[in-house]
Write a structure and sequence with these properties.
Blueprint (H helix, E strand, L loop, with lengths): L8 E12 L2 E13 L4 E5 L6 H8 L7 E6 L2 E2 L5 H11 E5 L10 H11 L4 H14 L15 H13 L5 E5 L7 H18 L2 E6 L10 E6 L2 E7 L20
Parallel strand pairs: 3-8, 3-9, 6-7, 7-8
Antiparallel strand pairs: 1-2, 1-4, 4-5, 9-10
Helix pairs in contact: 3-4, 3-5
Length: 251
């Protein structure tokens, strides 16, 4: 049983610079952030403030110049690149602004794909993919190909793929960026249901302040720094009939 007083995710004194010619350009400037179990953290800030670099560093994709990224107390940068890749597949589910599909695979095969990479048997991977599609009322589209679906449907499919490995943390990078307002709100509500009722820890980056109401914690970034962190006292509630029952243990 994990220690409940250990943050699910923590960044400590995090710095990241990129080399341009011979000059090191600082992008992340000594960031500190704790994310507790079951929180919905929304990171806001203008384009170019370092939000996506922070997300990629948390995911183990960008080696920090200084500092640590701790997932349940474990510094992921003590692992080698292959170790981080395995850890990322097992513990993180990622929803990007632009989903990357294997075009030769249909919907259910794309959802099962992360499990195939992780070495899960084909039969078990397809079973788990079918179950997650059913939970999201998406099983009727199992034999479609992703490019036959609307943008909103593709993002919901992207969430199914992110959840199929039963991850500890869902990371979302501008997941509504290419969606119309109505479809974007529908996707945000799905994320909120997963957070409040299925106890998924969610970290989302966005430049849109309209999504503040979905958060339990707000993080405001500017010029590579965290300017302010605000805990919300009364997070948005969801309707009981909308609950998705993900019964597998998540902590």
């Amino acid at each position: 049983m994990a220690k409940l007083n250990t943050p699910t995710l923590e960044v400590k004194n995090l710095k990241k610079s990129f080399l341009v010619g011979k000059e090191a350009i600082p992008v992340l400037k000594e960031l500190n952030l704790k994310v507790g179990f079951g929180e919905f953290v929304v990171i806001l800030g203008p384009s170019g403030c370092g939000k996506s670099t922070l997300l990629n560093t948390i995911l183990g994709l960008e080696q920090p110049t200084e500092g640590q990224v701790l997932v349940r107390g474990k510094d992921i940068y003590t692992m080698d690149e292959d170790g981080r890749a395995t850890f990322r597949r097992q513990k993180f589910g990622v929803v990007y602004q632009q989903p990357n599909w294997v075009r030769s695979l249909n919907v259910i095969e794309n959802v099962a794909f992360p499990l195939n990479i992780a070495g899960v048997s084909h039969g078990e991977a397809m079973k788990r993919a079918r179950n997650i599609l059913y939970l999201f009322k998406f099983d009727n589209y199992a034999k479609y190909y992703p490019m036959e679906l609307s943008g909103g449907q593709q993002q919901k499919l992207s969430m199914c793929r992110a959840l199929v490995s039963n991850p500890w943390i869902i990371m979302a990078d501008e997941p509504t960026g290419n969606l119309d307002t109505v479809t974007a709100e529908d996707l945000m509500y799905d994320l909120k249901v997963l957070n409040s009722e299925s106890k998924r820890t969610i970290v989302m980056v966005t430049h849109n302040p309209a999504y503040e109401r979905y958060a339990t914690k707000l993080v405001y970034m500017e010029d590579g720094k965290i300017k302010r962190i605000m805990q919300r006292e009364k997070p948005m509630e969801v309707k009981q009939e909308d609950v998705v029952d993900l019964t597998e243990e998540v902590f």
